[in-house]
Amino acid sequence: MLRLGIVGLPNVGKSTLFNALTNAGAAAENFPFCTVEPNVGVVPVPDDRLNQLAQTVQPKKVVPTVVEFVDIAGLVKGASQGEGLGNQFLSHIREVDAIVHVVRCFEDPDVTHVMGPVDPVRDHDIITAELALADLAVLERRLERVEKTARSGNKEAQQEADFIARAIADLNAGKGVRDTIRSDTDRRLARQLGMLTVKPILYAANVSEADLGREEIPASARLQAAIRTHHEEAEIVPFSAKFEAELAELSGGERQEFLESAGITRTGLERLVRAGYRLLHLETFFTVGPNEVRAWTIPAKSTAFDAAGEIHSDFQRGFIRAETIGVGEFLQAGSYKVAREKGLVRSEGREYVVKDGDILLFRFNV
After folding, report:
1. Contact 253/261 with Cβ under 8 angstroms?
2. Which of 47, 48, 174, 289 has the largest count of CB atoms under 10 Å?
3. Nearest to residue 241, comparing CAs of 114, 347, 112, 103?
4. What is the pLDDT of residue 263?
5. What is the pLDDT of residues 18-52, one digit of tens each?
6. In 328-359, which positions are buried (b, 16+ CB within 10 angstroms) versus exposed (e)?
7. By three-state DSSP, how is residue 205 classified?
8. φ, ψ at 165 (rounded to 5°)
9. Is 96 helix (H, G, I), strand (E, B) or coil?
10. Per residue in 68-117, pLDDT tens?
11. How far apart are CA 83 and CA 115, in angstroms?
């Protein structure tokens, strides 16, 4: 399951966004640290293809893939030294797959800002610095211990000491540990050390309702320029927490009309999840039958053998082949029977690289 941790300074819209995404009822008060323990919400991933498959097949059950959002309390300047319960909150960040950094880009005199005037670049820099300082503290403590072992000739300790020294240099130069990684060994060490500045970051620019749908949002543009200097691959998704909260109370046609009135076609949840999938290089495949139509999430470039193991270890252990068809071809055919008659269903071996949107039927024997 994909786990996304929502972070940011207090009063930037984190809990309002979390409530709208998950309907979990988390407190969203106008003061810092309203979220002391991380609220967790598991939500289905919106996917039009799954809906279309369900309408075509009419199965007994439809199972979407899911994403877990963790609402982590607001960080403040000095969090890496324990300010505002910072150490506790930073530990929660270490447990997620990627970070959703909510940055306030709207003015509202009724919602105070912990740092005074609204300044998205300043807010971005504060959180970025706190994550880097937290990593730096971990690395400096670890280096003291590992250097002693490295001096004795231990090769693994020497590799770790070299990585830590390079990572410390990058952090002091205003970079993240992600810039230090040059090999699988570096990647493994960063993971073992719980580095925060390795985690992929998705930036959610919380704009006013009036700014939704605009091609150019000044505050968001300034934020984007600042982000690119730290993290070139970062995804930036403009959204309005207030708009999403109002949208969550609507259903059916009313939701679509409300979206269109703002000049957008997809909800904040859809746009955040899609960006998260791109950022983490994830794809979706489907299994289709009269009892169940289901979506599954796998890393991009996974093989049919990998996908089989995602469903059940027996599928992988007794793998024979995977009958494969693209979701578009299946929907046009309307059923497996017609698809087979038209020769659209392919038989693939364990090394077949699954494509996003593939429908897979596994043949196995255990």
Report:
1. no
2. 47
3. 103
4. 84
5. 887 776 444 444 433 344 456 788 888 889 999 99
6. ebbbebeebeebeeeebbeebeeebebeebbb
7. strand
8. -65, -40
9. coil
10. 888 876 555 554 454 444 455 667 788 888 999 999 888 877 776 777 78
11. 14
Q: For residues 309 and 11, what is the distance between their CA atoms, to the nearest angstrom? A: 42
Evaluate whether 235 touches 279 at the Cβ level (below 8 Å): yes
Residues 125-130: contacts with CB within 8 Å, 24+ apart? 125/226, 126/9, 126/75, 126/76, 126/77, 127/7, 127/8, 127/9, 127/75, 127/101, 128/230, 129/77, 130/75, 130/77, 130/78, 130/79, 130/80, 130/86, 130/90
Closest CA to 287 of 276, 277, 273, 297: 297
DSSP string covering 183-205: SHHHHHHHHHTT-STTS-EEEEE
The beta-strand segments (E) located in the chain are 2-7, 39-44, 61-63, 66-71, 98-104, 201-206, 235-239, 282-288, 292-299, 319-326, 346-348, 358-364
Cα–Cα distance for residue pair 205/118, rounded to 1 Å: 13
Q: Residue 71 and residue 64: Cα distance in Å, rounded?
A: 22
DSSP string, 64-94: --EEEEEEPPPP-TTGGGTGGGHHHHHHHHT
pLDDT band at residue 130, thresholds of 50, 70 and 90? Answer: confident
User: How many percent of the chain have pLDDT more than 90?
Assistant: 44
In this predicted structure, what is the pLDDT of residue 165?
A: 96
Check if the beta carbon of residue 160 is closer than 8 Å to that of residue 189: yes
The distance from CA 69 to its chain's CA centroid, rounded to whole angstroms, is 9
Distance of CA 121 to the CA centre of its chain: 22
Q: Both tokens of residue 271?
A: 């746009």
Cβ atoms of 264 and 272 closer than 8 Å? no
Tracing tokens 């207090």 back to the chain, one arrives at: 10
Helix/strand number for the chain, H first, E second = 14, 12
Instruction: Supply φ then ψ for residue 54, to 5 degrees.
Output: -65, -40
- Residue 34 tokens read as 């309203």
